[in-house]
Amino acid sequence: MEKIKLDVERCKGCYLCIANCKVGAISRSDYTNGKGVVTVQVDQEKCVQCGSCYTMCPDLVFEIL
Is the Cβ–Cβ distance between 47 and 5 less than 8 Å? Predict the structure, then answer.
């Protein structure tokens, strides 16, 4: 079951989410969005739904389910 939903087309590649994820659940993906940015991905198994990615993201990429 998904814990976090991503809108990777909004990602601008600042990677603040990666730097602030305390459990290491967020990493760079192999996907490049329409802006030419290598986006992020979430390991749903590691995610504890703490909300730090949601709070840090200036582009509203994350939605906590």
Answer: no
Give me the percent of the chain exceeding a pLDDT of 70: 100
Tokens in use for 62? 């994350």
DSSP string over 2-40: -SEEE-GGG--S--HHHHH-TT--EEEEEEE-TTS-EEE
Give domain status of residue 47, yes or no.
yes
| Interval 3-44: pLDDT, tens | 899 999 999 999 999 999 999 999 999 999 999 999 999 999
Residue 39 in any domain: the answer is yes
Its pTM stands at: 0.90
Residues 6+ apart with CB under 8 A from 45: none
